[in-house]
Amino acid sequence: MSKPAIGFIGLGIMGKPMARNLMKAGYALTVHNRSRGAVEELVRDGAQDGRSPRGVAERSEIIITMLPDSPDVQQVVMAPGGVLEGIKPKSVLVDMSTISPIVTQDIARAVEAKDAEMLDAPVSGGEKGAVEATLSIMIGGRDDVVDRVRPIFEALGKNIVHIGGHGAGQVTKACNQIVVALTIQAVSEALALAAKAGVDAAKVRQALLGGFAQSRILDAHGQRMLDRNFKPGFKVRLHQKDLNIALSTAKTLAVPLPATAVVQEAFTALRGLGRGDLDHSALVTLIEDLAKVEVR
Ligand code: NAP
Q1: Which of 32, 39, 238 to mutate to test the pocket of ligand 1 (most atoms within 8 A of CB)?
Q2: What b/e sequence results for 88-111 when a residue is b if at least 16 CB atoms lie within 10 Å of its CB, and e otherwise?
Q3: What ligand 1 atom has the least distance to the C-alpha of 35?
Q4: From atom 4 of ligand 1, which residue's Cα is the shortest distance away?
């Protein structure tokens, strides 16, 4: 069976390496992005320039979006010149951005009204996972549609889990972001305490990595904190957006998330300090400022 033509919209930190992996796997790609740099780079490597979301949809059977937030996906899909104007019957819109589960369900209804299909398929694993095609992919949508798109997911990630219906992938991603944010806060507090106590924070990290406190966050972000490497990665403002999604979903369902709310305010403070475009591991700098200490 020939490989479906793929469209890719949103070529940022995550989208560009994901698009490259699809080209490496032999898919013909049509791309679009707001700024032109990444489009020109991929066109030099053999992709087609879709010129607009509509242009991408007209040329593609599977259209992937990897955009920052819910309003961005709404605009790219629903606005004049958007995906809905060009999408063909039976085509699939696969939104891999992290957005609100409620907005996802609205978009799915609009796509289905065009006799096309939608999956929500947000990811975890960061820029490294995008580059190395080892992302964890959390999927909401219909079984038969997931089966059609599975070979494409396999070119992008390793842990591919179909969770449930429309929005279930986004709910899973909100759960993921709670665990990641609270763990970064815990690692920040632990290393700041070690530093202020005059104990070698690098050795504390090393010791904790061998015990029950071990985590990928302690490993990767603990090292970032020690190296003072806050180049994103995953930006503070995007993680704040994700905790907003978690908190507003939880409020609707009457589920209290007290610790999530605290870390959300810490991200707000970081943005107030002009650190919103740093990597989310820069959460440690807030504790450092409050404690007058630097983790090194
Ligand atoms: P990013 O670097 O900010 O990339 C977003 C891209 O979307 C940019 O290239 C941007 O273009 C483009 N864009 C924005 N609005 C657009 C529009 N209206 N039309 C066309 N293109 C548009 O963000 P990212 O880190 O790749 O994240 C993308 C999504 O993945 C987010 O939902 C994020 O939460 C999620 N995610 C990120 C990570 C991570 O580690 N970074 C991990 C997992 C999930 P410009 O060049 O013009 O800005």
Answers
A1: 238
A2: eeebbbbbbbbbbbebbbbbbebb
A3: 47
A4: 12
Regarding the beta carbon of 4 and ligand 1, being less than 6 Å apart is answered: no
Q: Rounded to whole angstroms, how far apart are CA atoms 135 and 138? A: 10
pLDDT digits (tens, 9 = 90+) for 92-123: 999 999 999 999 999 999 999 999 999 999 99
Residue 119 located in a structural domain: yes
Domain boundary among 166, 182, 212: 166
Instruction: Write out the catalytic residue numbers.
Output: 173
Structure tokens at 295: 């983790």
Q: Is the pTM of this model over 0.90?
A: yes
* Pocket flag, ligand 1, residue 121 (CB < 6 Å): no
Domain of 285, in residue numbers:
171-291
Final residue of a structural domain among 104, 132, 166: 166
Is the pLDDT confidence value at 67 over 70?
Answer: yes
